[in-house]
Design brief:
Keywords: Amino-acid biosynthesis, Aminotransferase, Histidine biosynthesis, Pyridoxal phosphate, Transferase. The chain is an alpha/beta fold. 40% of the residues lie in helices and 15% in strands. Helix 3 packs parallel to helix 10, helix 4 runs parallel beside helix 5 and helix 4 crosses helix 9. Bound molecules: 4'-deoxy-4'-aminopyridoxal-5'-phosphate.
Length: 358
């Protein structure tokens, strides 16, 4: 019998997925929006020009696998082009990773608190996410993550530096960790904030790739490159893993405009490097000032700072909003403040200073 008032059954695991929480208030011209770790800078004129030029061919599909961009990336990174995969932001790449490597009955080990899309994307693949809590200073618990790997584990995720705490383990700790993971377990290294990591603190993930076939490095044009609105990121891995990622790619999932903007950004390296330097300088200024006012702020290696205020996170977020600043609140954990222009940061600093002086 056909039941006419029934409706399609939503998979239990889909109904159980956490929702991706964007900022609670819509950004408006009056508010200082520091909640999404975006670049505060407008696109470079050369990047805009490339997008406008690309718009002349919007009636055509884009290059399916971003061949031109992959060529440039491969050359820069010193790897063969077939080891580079371009996707719909690094979130899109992560979705491809789990679609290709995890399913029901499998588990994926990831740090928590970390990028909130991890449990969503793992859960959507059907696999079980195994969250390993951060250490007391907001650092990845690499020993705990190692201990969480069992026979069902298909992948383990590292977020370097970790969003939202900004911490990064040392190069040797990461090398040791990767060497200890069994070869059949994929090690996903999410380097969304790589460009903001100081020269002495990098983990050299690409070098790990030369030694370990099970590593997949994920990067994005959303943060340092300022292309968050265009949705483009990439992965570097063995050609075998890269091929699997391409098989599950949404057909034509990266627009021609995004590909053109990414190519133009790679051509504008010195201008973008100067912008990254400016953000890093501001990050240090803001961190020092906040600590000076008694805020617990761990050393950050990204384009945001972390206020480790688990008990008062919501109240701090609320008070910032009352003073015109939108930060990202993680109830029970803390508040993450993206680094913006000096003016935006001054606004946030004034608000946080006032809160301490009340
Ligand atoms: N990884 C991390 C650690 C992130 O913080 C983010 C964005 N917040 C992403 C991946 C996804 O970025 P995108 O999809 O824009 O590349």
């Amino acid at each position: 019998m056909i039941a006419f008032n029934s409706s399609p059954r939503i998979l239990e695991r889909v109904a159980a997925l956490p929702r991706y929480a964007t900022a609670t208030a819509a950004p408006s011209a009056e508010m200082v929006y520091l909640a999404s770790n975006e670049s505060p800078f407008e696109p470079l004129p050369s990047v805009r020009q490339a997008v406008i030029a690309g718009s002349a061919r919007l009636n055509r599909y884009p290059e399916m696998h971003s061949g031109a961009l992959r060529g440039v990336l491969a050359e820069r990174l010193g790897v063969a082009p077939d080891r580079v995969v371009v996707g719909t932001g690094s979130a899109g790449i992560l979705q491809q990773v789990f679609a290709a490597f995890a399913q029901e009955g499998d588990s994926v080990v990831y740090p928590w608190r970390s990028f909130e899309a991890y449990p969503i994307l793992i859960g959507a693949s059907g696999a079980t996410g195994v969250a390993v809590p951060l250490g007391a200073r907001g650092e990845l618990d690499l020993a705990g993550m190692r201990a969480a790997i069992d026979t069902s584990t298909k992948a383990v995720l590292l977020c370097l530096p970790n969003n939202p705490t900004g911490t990064i383990p040392s190069r040797s700790e990461v090398a040791e960790f990767v060497a200890a993971v069994p070869g059949h377990v994929l090690v996903v290294i999410d380097e969304a904030y790589l460009e903001f990591v100081g020269p002495g603190s990098g983990v050299d993930a690409l070098r790990l790739l030369t030694r370990h076939d099970n590593v997949c490095v994920v990067r994005t044009f959303s943060k340092a490159y300022g292309l968050a609105g265009l949705r483009i990121g990439y992965a570097v891995s063995s050609s075998r893993i890269a091929d699997a990622l391409r098989r599950v790619f949404l057909p034509f999932g990266v627009t021609a405009l995004a590909q053109a903007a990414a190519c133009a950004s790679l051509d504008a390296r010195s201008e973008l490097d100067a912008r990254v330097d400016a953000i890093v300088r501001e990050r240090e200024r803001v961190s020092l000032a906040l600590r000076g006012h008694g805020w617990p702020v761990p050393e950050s290696h990204a384009n945001f700072v972390w206020l480790a205020v688990p008990e008062t996170a919501e109240a701090v977020g609320e008070a910032l909003r009352d003073r015109g600043v939108i930060a990202r609140v993680f109830p029970g954990d803390g508040v993450r403040l993206t680094i913006g222009t000096p003016e935006m940061n001054d606004h946030a600093l004034a608000a946080l200073t006032e809160m301490r002086e009340r």
